[in-house]
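Illustration: Blue-light-activated histidine kinase.
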Amino acid sequence: MIGFNAPREAGTRTTRADEAPLPEASASDAPFLAAFRASAAPMVMTDPALPDNPIVFTNDAFCRLTGYAADEVIGRNCRFLQGPDTDPSVIARVRDAVTRGEPLRVDLLNYRKDGHPFWNDMTLTPVRDEAGIVRSYFAVLTDVTRTRQAERALAREKDGLAHDLEARNRSLQAALDQQTALLHEVDHRVKNNLQVISSLVLLKARRARDPACRDVLRSMADRIGALATAHRLLYSVSDVARFDLRDFATDFAADLEAGLDSDRIALSVDVAAVAVPASMAAPLALLVHELAVNAVRHGFPGERSGRVAITARAEDERLILDIRDDGVGMPAEPDNPEGFGRDLVGMLVRQLRGSLTFEDLSPGTRAYVVLPLGTGHSGSRR
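Result:
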């Protein structure tokens, strides 16, 4: 193996002016020294037995990389390659590895003779003798300046892209916030206008002399009120793209119960917190209103008592709406030929692309509605 005292050249050139000349290389070391000199990889060897662990051998590739001549390198500690921007913590790692006699690979900033910096990917290897004692250190240098420059350019580009992306996200968020505020304002105004219209219709109903006309006007006012409730809920939530059916059912049930004789008709509501697309809000609110009100008004004539149950849940991207009562059931023909409740329900179900089934429960009636929620439905809210 190459010993720690391998000379730079054959002969007796000294490492320092005040030190003894380095011994000649042994004949067995000659092939290794020849390979060392001829290697395209910059290499140096240091001798930890000499003061300050100086370089005792180098090759031409090292001289070409650093710009130093061989006689300017031999006898000096490798720290002469350090400069103002060399990281002290990396130097400390090298020093610690030498102290411990351990191999190390680090990237450190070194400087050529002309002062130009270069990034050095250095592999430091301790060379031990048969007894395991470190006799020399063998360092291979690799100029990775271009790689480091490319990494820095890539990092700058990445930072620039991140900055641009952040700016675009801020711009998009501002636009989204503006759109959300606009939609909230629209829902708020629509709700207010619907409430005004409902009040006008009720006022007209109170002044109508024909009982049938009064009933029609009140029914219309109730339907308009259901639409107003839907827009009020759209206005009050942060997600303008979703409508919570449970919130609507809770408000609607409270209004419906207020007009019921609680001793005669009981109302139960079991509606899951299904977030449906906002585009379904108005027709769905009107559909729930129409089916529930019809069950209450037509299922219990006279003094007949019973109960009405409203249930809804999401299942496999579908909304299942079930409204049933234990009243007299649905007549074969509507009592009021001028009424359009069934026609309205059918139109709403078609608009929502769903299906509607009426079932005779004997006693009572069940309205079973299945509506598609569309791709991307988020399901029930927790």
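Reading the tokens back as a structure: Residues 1-24, 375-382 have pLDDT under 50 and may be disordered.
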